[in-house]
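FIELD: query
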Amino acid sequence: MTFTMKDVARLAGVSIATVSAVLTGKKPVSKELRARIEDAMQALDYHPDQVARSLKKGSTNVVGMVIPDVTNPFFTELMRGAEEEARRTGMSVMLCNTDGDPEIEHHQINTLLAHRVDGILLSCADSFTPWERLERRKVPFVFFDRLPVGYKGAGVALDNREAAAEATRFLIGLGHRRIAIIAGAQNVSPGIARLEGFREAAEAAHLAVRTQYVRIGDFSIESGYQCGRELIALPSPPTAILSCNNKMTLGLMRAMAEEKVPCPDSVSVIGFDDFEWSANFSPRLTTVSQPTRAMGRKAMEMLLDQINAAADAGSPGTVMFPSQLIVRDSTAPPR
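FIELD: result
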């Protein structure tokens, strides 16, 4: 049975207007009456119709968050940071997963707009997909992690090019000359920028970027495994590998273990993303650490600023976060 505001008023012995005043907070209500109404609501398990209330006030206090891979702990940490910031301001987050599919992404965005969310955080499935449709819908939005190519609006991302360049320079500094990369998908900005950073660092050190040492994965464990096997099987295999996300690193390490290629004795490995398992691996993994939760908080902060700002407020632009190279046991000078 569904109870109404009228039922709450009857049980509490007050008028419907008094119950409404407690729910909306627009009029003062004595502590005694408030307690009676709250007790009645609890007894009846009454919950206000949030949809109806949002239509009246023109705001839902809900924002959408669209991510490409809910199984990746990187995006889980981003979501936690965003939720922490949203919760602090009384907002709720509606999470959508796209599996990196632009068609699913399009559907999820339409679903969020149909639910009248106040704004959208989006890590795009494809950096070449037009994003102007969001501007046309007049909904506040912020891109995070994966940005559209050429985008100059509100966004939060790692400085992926410099992050990959720093990792490559570190391997060069150890004495490695045969350095390979397992790059991410080349249709999203992190995959593109990390490969660019790798190439720039190698070329600056006058190292030829060998075609056979450049492998393109899709940020999945299986692609890291397959790329790892291909690199290990080369007639002149690399002495160091930069793996451009956590899942591909897991696949790479599995391939090396199966082929009995010791790390770092035969091949040094640097991975992207630093989580608890990085320090509990054998060997403990050298990783490019991202300030993931801080990035999620910043993205939500920027979105809430847009939601609360005047309609003609200018875009804050894209905020780039620095990475940190965490050196552990999976890297060493080549034999």
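FIELD: remark
The radius of gyration is 25 Å.
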